[in-house]
Amino acid sequence: MKDILTIPLIALRDIVLFPYAIEPLLIGRVKSVNAVCKAYNEQTDIVVVTQRDPLIDDITASNLYKIGTVGHIHNFMKLNDGTVKVLIKGLYRVSIDNISVDNDVTQALCTKLQNKVRGSKMLEGLKLALISVFESFCKHSKKLPPDALKTISNIEDASQLCDIISSYLALKVSEQQELLELVNVTKRIKKLIFIIESQTELFLVEKKIKSMVKRQVEKSQKEYYLHEQLKAINKELGNSEEQSDEIEELKHKIKSLPMSKEAHNKALQELKRLKNIPNFSQEGVVIKNYIDWLVNIPWKESKEELSMEYAEELLNKNHYGLDKIKDRILEYIAVYKRTKKVKSQILCFVGPPGVGKTSLGKSIADAMKRPFARISLGGVTDEAEIRGHRRTYVGSMPGRIIQAMKRINVTNPIIMLDEIDKLGSDPESALLEVLDPEQNSTFTDNYLEVQYDLSQIIFIATANSYEISLPLLDRMEIIELSGYTEEEKLNIAKNFIIPKQMQENGLKNNEMIITDDAIMDVIRYYTMESGVRNLERKISKILRKVVRKLVSNNSESNEVMTITQDNLKDYLGIKKYNQDIVSKEPTIGVVNGLAWTETGGDVLTIEALKIPGTGQLVTTGKLGEVMQESMKAAYSFVKSQYKILAIEEEDLSKYDIHVHVPEGAVPKDGPSAGITICTAIVSAFTCKKPRADIAMTGEITLVGKVLPIGGLREKLLAARRNGIKNILIPYDNEKDIEELPKVLKNELHIKCVKHIDEVLKKVLL
What we know:
- This protein is an alpha/beta fold.
- The protein contains 27 helices and 24 strands.
- Helix 18 crosses helix 19, helix 18 (486-504) packs across helix 20 (533-553) and helix 22 (625-640) packs across helix 24 (674-686).
C-alpha cells in the first residue's frame, strides 16, 4: 500500500535537499514563508522541491521537478525583514502528485518512494568502491569539511551513504536532481562513482598543469608564471594552436594594411593583450571584436574616373526635368574634378516625399563612380549613434558613420544623410564634426579610440522641411525640389516608372499598353501628392493585376492588354480623390487659402462664423502658435478698420467670431493664411459672400500689409489640382513667378497684392 500524505511545500531555486542531509535555508517568498511557519507551528514535516527555472517567482507545478524530499525543521528563526531562517534535515524521497494553494500556503499531495535494492553482494562491493573513490577525492579536494570521511565511515545503509556523499559534492542542480530521482540504489552508486572519478581526474589535471608550470619558471617571475599557466590550461583544453594561428593571421593583416601610425600601434597593443587572455573569455571576445573592426574598416580610397559627359548623360537618363538642379550637380562635379578636394558646402536636397531626393544622391554616386551608402537620421537622439559607444561592455560598437564605412569598404564614398531635419538635438554636435572639412580628417569614434580620416567622403543630405538647426544649416547648401506638375508626372510615368515596373513584374513591351488618359486619371483621382512615389505604387498595382490575368489565362495569343480610362476602375477600384472637393458655391465666411506642408501644397479652407457673444475671438482646428497669432492680427485689423469695412460698431461687442480650419485632427501652422483669415472674418461680419473660384496666400500685418510667403510652386500646384484658376499672392513674390513651370503661368490667373484692401475688393461680392 502506498504512503500518501498532504503536507506544506517550499520550492528552492538553486539547491537540492537530499535525505539525511542537513541544510540551512533562508526563505523569503511569501508562500514558502507561510508553508514553513505552518509546518513548524503544527509540528509537521515539509516537502522540499527544486525549481526547473530559478528565475520564476511563482510556484507552479510545471516549474517544479516531480521528485522532492520530505524534511523536518530543526531550527526556526524569523528575521525582522519578514524572511525565515531554518535548518532542515532530509528524511525520504517523495513524488509530487499534485500541488494546491490554501490560505496562501502551497500544499503538496505526495507519495513516499521506497528505495529499490537488488543483489546484496554486488551492492556491498559497490559500497566499498564508492567509499574508496570518495577517499581519493577527499585527498585532492580542499573544499570538503574535514570530518566528511569520518562521517561516511560509520554508515551501513547504502542509500544513506549515497545521499550523504551527494550532499558533499559541488554539482550542478540538474546533476543533483538526477541523483535524487534515482530510486534504484545500485544505479545511484554507479552514477556517484562516475561523477567522483571525473572530478578527481579534473583535480589531477589541474595538479599536472601546476607541476608543468613550476618546472618551467622561477617562483619570483609571477607575471611570466601566470602567462605560462594560462598556456598550459589552453594546451590541456586543446585550443592553443588554433588561437595562436588566429593571432598570427591578425598580426600579418595589421602589418599589411595602410593604417595610420596611431591605429597600427593600437591594433598591435590590443593583439598583445589578446595573447594573454583565453579566447573564450568575455574580455577576449571584446578585444577580438575591437581588432576585427580596426582591420575591417577601409584604409584606402577607390579609384575614380570622372567624365562630365558621362555624368550629364546619366543625370538626364535617370531624371526628368530638374534642369537647374542637374546644372548645380554638374557644377559640383566639375569643381571637384578640377580641385580634387571636398571642401565645398554639403548639398542638401529639401522637398516633399517622393520627388527624387534619394535617387538624385544615387545618380551623383554613379556619375562620380563612387560607392553609395544611405544613413537614416530620422529619430536619432543619442550622440553615440554618430560618435560610437565606448568599449565598456560586450555589445558596444562604432557609430553609424564608421559602420557605413565598413559596409562600403573604401575611404572615399558618397554618404547620404537622410532626413537630417528629424535629427535630435543631442547628436547634432557630433554630426557637425563629421561634416566640417576642417575637423573630420581627425574624427575620433568613441569605440575605435583612434583618429579616422573622413575628409575624402562626399556627404549629401535630404530633408522634408527647412526645420534644420542653424549650425547644421550653415554647413549646407539648400537645393529645393518642388512638386511636379501633372504633365511632368505623366512624362515621368511614361519614360521612367512604367518601363521600370514592367521589367520588375516580368512584362514585355508587346503585352500591355496604358494610355496617357489612363495615366492622367491615376495622377488626378488615385494619388494626391507632390512627388511620384504613390504614382509608382498604383502603376505597380495595375501591372501586377495584368500579370495575374496573363498567367491565369495561360494563353499564347499575342493579344495586347490595354489599360484605358474606361477599364481603369477594374484595376484600381473606385476613385480615391475628387478634384472638386473645393466648394464652387460662394458661402459667407468661407474662403479658400493655400498652404505648404512637408508632403507638398494643399488647399486650406478657412471658415468664420458670427455668433452672439462679447466680441471675443474663438479659434479651433489644431492650430500652431504662429497661425493663432495670424488670427489675432487679422481680427485686430478688422476691429481697427470697422468703419471703412462697413461693419456696425455694436456688432463688434455683441458678437463673437469663431474661426475654424477644417480637418481638426491635422496640425496646422504658419503665417501665410493671414489674408485668408482676414477675408473670412470680414465676410462673416458684412454677410458678403467671397468668390469660391479664388484662392489666396499671404501674411498680414496689423496695418493690413501683405507680406511674402514661401512654397509658392507647391501652393499653385495644389490650386491647379483642385481646379482653382484665380490666385492672389503677395506683391513681393512676383519675382518667383518667372521660375514657375509654363503650364502654371499659362493656366492660372495670378494677381499680386500689397494690401488687404486689394484682396477684399477682388474677393468679396
